[in-house]
Amino acid sequence: MASTVLVVEDEKEIRELLRRYLERAGYGVLTTGSGAEALRLLGEGDVDLTLLDLGLPDVEGEEVLREARERGRVPVVVLTARTTVEDRIHGLRLGADDYVNKPFSPTEVVLRVGAVLQRAGRTATRAASVQSYGRDRLRIDETRHEAMLDGTPLELTPTEWGLLTTLASVPGRVYSRYELVNRVRGYEFAGYDRTIDSHVKNLRHKLGDSGSELVETVLGVGYRLGWARDS
């Protein structure tokens, strides 16, 4: 059975972004923007890990973390825009198992979730994490953070990996440069969206002769994955 992750985040865009990435990695996902609702869901006992934003509108995130710790040993990964060392130490002292600063890469968050669950002796269902495209020419395993083209492993930077997995999430869907920047580099990344072009160029280079066919340019709009997902 898949591990269930509870995402507690008051910003809907971030909540939905994390939900999509976690579900593609094989996790069951519950979401809420309310600290009170988070405590109710934790009390039902069907949560294996909590992703917790400290800046909640109704209940202080620190209070949710304290109560979560009193109710059991469900791992907690804190999400926060508070970036000082003192804030990080405070969160860890309250019992957080890991700490992720905003803006973040959603792929990195998924990997951290997997690492924390592994340390806690829990696992996610892995079968759903491996996808193939182009009649099995391209294989992507998000949980293991591995991609192979024609049987050869691809050595990708974090940004290139994020680009490939985002485009592969819905083959044929066109993603604008702005979307790709925010999904790959983290929500509200303070960067000019045209910088994504250089990363696409590098990704295509690593994909060799299949680069332009795999990562297609849609003039005036953005990019899409040119190969269909295998059924």
Structure description:
The chain is α/β, with parallel strands linked by helices and about 230 residues long. It has 2 domains: about 5-120, Rossmann fold (3-Layer(aba) Sandwich); about 130-225, Arc Repressor Mutant, subunit A (Orthogonal Bundle). The chain has helices at about 10-25, 35-45, 60-70, 85-95, 105-120, 160-170, 175-185, 195-205, 210-215; strands spanning about 5-10, 30, 50-55, 75-80, 100, 130-135, 140, 145-150, 150-155, 175, 215-220, 220-225. The strands form 3 sheets. It has a 5-stranded parallel β-sheet, with helices on both faces. Strands 6-7-8-9 form a 4-stranded antiparallel β-sheet, with helices on one face. A 3-stranded antiparallel β-sheet has the order 10-12-11. Helix 3 links the parallel strand 3 and strand 4 (about 75-80). Helix 1 crosses helix 5, helix 2 runs parallel beside helix 3 and helix 6 (about 160-170) packs across helix 8 (about 195-205).
Give the overall form: elongated
Strand content: 15-25%
- Topology as a string of helices (H) and strands (E): EHEHEHEHEHEEEEHEHHHEE
Q: How many H/I helices? A: 9
Q: What's the gyration radius in Å?
A: 18 Å
CATH architecture of the largest domain: 3-Layer(aba) Sandwich
Largest sheet: 5 strands, parallel
Say what the CATH topology of the largest domain is.
Rossmann fold
Please state the average pLDDT score. 82
Terminal CA distance: 22 Å
Q: How many structural domains are formed by the residues?
A: 2
The main sheet orders its strands as 2-1-3-4-5
Helix percentage: 40-55%
CATH superfamily of the largest domain: Response regulator
CATH class of the largest domain: Alpha Beta
Structural class: alpha/beta
- Overall number of strands: 12
- Which regions have little confidence, pLDDT < 50, spanning 5+ residues? 124-128
